[in-house]
Amino acid sequence: MLVRNIRGFESRRVPNNIESWLEYYNRNIHSSNRVTCSKCNGPAEVGAHVIKMVGVKEWYLVPLCKKCFEEEANFEVEEKHLVKVYLM
Fold it and tell me: Which burial class, exposed, middle or buried, applies to 3 when counting CB atoms under 10 A from its CB (0-12, 13-18, 19+)?
């Protein structure tokens, strides 16, 4: 699934007193596997807000390393690794 990083939302308040967007991702992915960067498979450092480039324009989280988080280009991610973000 082709997605694009939505810049400027990393400081948005995390729901339910969760410490970070990466922690929110980890709690909602329902997997016991170690979470890695969705682009390079390195250690995940942030939960990045992304939007699908095709279909419904809903917001999701994916784990990224800081280097990949700074990149502007669209990227592919398996749909099973997307965690939907419900905006408040």
Answer: buried
What is the Cα–Cα distance from 14 to 11, expressed in whole angstroms? 8
DSSP code for 43: B
Quick: pLDDT tens for 39-66: 999 999 999 999 999 888 788 999 999 9
Half-sphere exposure of 68 (CA within 13 A, CB side): 24
Tell me the domain boundaries of the chain. 2-84
CB 21: neighbour CB atoms within 10 A?
Answer: 23
- From edge to edge, which strands make up the β-sheet containing 59-64? 75-76, 2-5, 46-52, 59-64, 83-84
